[in-house]
């Protein structure tokens, strides 16, 4: 089984490849996308999901308390915690 560091490195290499190899057509000319991915790219939801999954895993680990309810849809997050923890859930 691959280590977490190796998987993260592979994800970054794949992401870099995708973001650096995107092109688009404007006014019958082909251009290379300099940074990012076009809004209508079918890869965009996958890229967002990979990034959000890593961010939420790290955030929940750092929070350090039991989360009663956690739900994410794309980049919107809802979570429920005990009342006494509300001030610490920035």
Describe the model.
The chain is an alpha+beta fold and 90 residues long. 41% of the residues lie in helices and 20% in strands. It is built from two helices and four strands. It has helices at residues 4-20, 44-63, and strands at 23-26, 29-32, 69-73, 76-80. The strands form two sheets. The chain has a two-stranded antiparallel ribbon. The longest helix has 20 residues, at 44-63. It is elongated, with a radius of gyration of 18 Å. It starts with a helix and ends in a 10-residue tail after the last strand. The mean pLDDT is 77.
Provide the descriptors you would attach to this structure in a database record.
4 strands; alpha+beta; 2 helices; 90 residues; two-stranded antiparallel ribbon
Helix-strand layout with pairing:
Elements: H1 4-20, E1 23-26, E2 29-32, H2 44-63, E3 69-73, E4 76-80
Antiparallel strand pairs: 1-2, 3-4
Overall form: elongated
The main β sheet shows up as:
2 strands, antiparallel
Strand order of the largest sheet: 1-2
Low-confidence stretches: none
Approximately how much beta-strand content do the residues carry? 15-25%
- Bin the helical content: 40-55%
Mean pLDDT: 77
- Following the backbone from N to C, one meets helices and strands in this order, namely HEEHEE
Structural class, from helix and strand content? alpha+beta
Number of strands: 4
Q: What count of helical segments does DSSP give?
A: 2
How far apart lie the N and C ends?
35 Å
Radius of gyration: 18 Å
């Amino acid at each position: 089984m691959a280590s977490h560091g190796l998987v993260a490195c592979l994800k970054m290499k794949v992401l870099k490849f995708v973001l650096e190899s995107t092109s688009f057509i404007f006014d019958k000319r082909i251009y290379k996308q300099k940074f990012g991915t076009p809004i209508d790219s079918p890869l965009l939801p996958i890229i967002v999901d990979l990034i959000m999954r890593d961010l939420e895993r790290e955030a929940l680990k750092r929070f350090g308390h039991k989360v009663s309810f956690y739900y994410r849809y794309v980049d919107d997050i809802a979570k429920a915690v005990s009342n006494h923890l509300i001030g610490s859930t920035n």
